Amino acid sequence: MEKEVIINNENDLKDKIYMIRGVQVMLDKDLAEIYGYSTKAFNQQVKNNIEKFDEEDLMFQLTEEETNNLRSNFLTANISVMSRSLPYAFTEQGVYMLMTVLKGELATKQSKALVRLFKKMKDYVIENQQVVSQRDFLRLSLQTSENTQNIIEFQKQLAEIDDKVETVVSNLGDMVRKSELSPIMLNLGKPEIPAGWLILNGQPVESDIAYQQIYTLANKTIYIVDNYISLKTLILFKNAKQNVAVTIFSDNTNNGLHKVEYDDFCKEFPGLKIDVKEAGKIFHDRYNILDYGTPDEKIYHCGASSKDGGRKVTTITLTDDTSVYSGLIAQLLKNKPLVLK
After folding, report:
1. Maximum CA pair distance of the chain?
2. pTM of the model
3. Per-residue pLDDT tens over the stretch 119-155
């Protein structure tokens, strides 16, 4: 047995974990050092109990190419080059199996330290898994939003083509009548927003376009009343006009939007001002309120949250008389800021 080598923290352990063949492994050289063996003596212990390591999900020997790649990485990281050409790699399950093979006071002590550190690392990943995945979702959603905006621009171009087609048809006189053309051809890509949107089941992209087109109508403010919000709620504001102030009134049911997501989005789009306030636990329906208190005021009643649009049949309807909501909106504006967790 050689001198005792103790792993004190997660960083010590992480430095000895590598990704090979799509799985995280530890090398025989490092494990031998941890357990106080020479690499040769360590591998002899494994060979003496080879029946416990005869599956690749426990242990496998690296190829020459894999070994050369590791050597290159070791040199880059100023770590000593391995003395042997084809080391053995142990998966996490293989490391646990080692704990049943290696005996002695030091082996027991080091095994306990490894188990605790493995658990601590796993706990950290599990606790932060949602945050990490949501950040990945932010990047994915931003790209999806860009694609959605391209669809809107394409629709506008189609609308211009439609106008030209209608002009040509008009000049043809009796040879061809507009009524003989397909209504789909005449209305393809019209950018105007109708009084009511019907979003059919299974069409989330069409739903995103609908919400984004509604938001582009606002000149000064956008107020959203929706208890069920998420990162996607923010993403859909991305193409609103510059200097339009957005306020979301929500009770954030189920904690769908987290503080870290909100902060990341604000950093990504510093020119877009989005405030979040409490809704007061009195709302069931959802509303989009554009340019409140101005001659351009519009209020849309939404059957579903924007984050869930397209999952089921949803209707978005333009309200004819906005005055009935004036008192309610004025009260909303007095509500406290929503504290995100």
Report:
1. 102
2. 0.48
3. 776 665 555 555 545 555 555 555 555 555 555 665 5
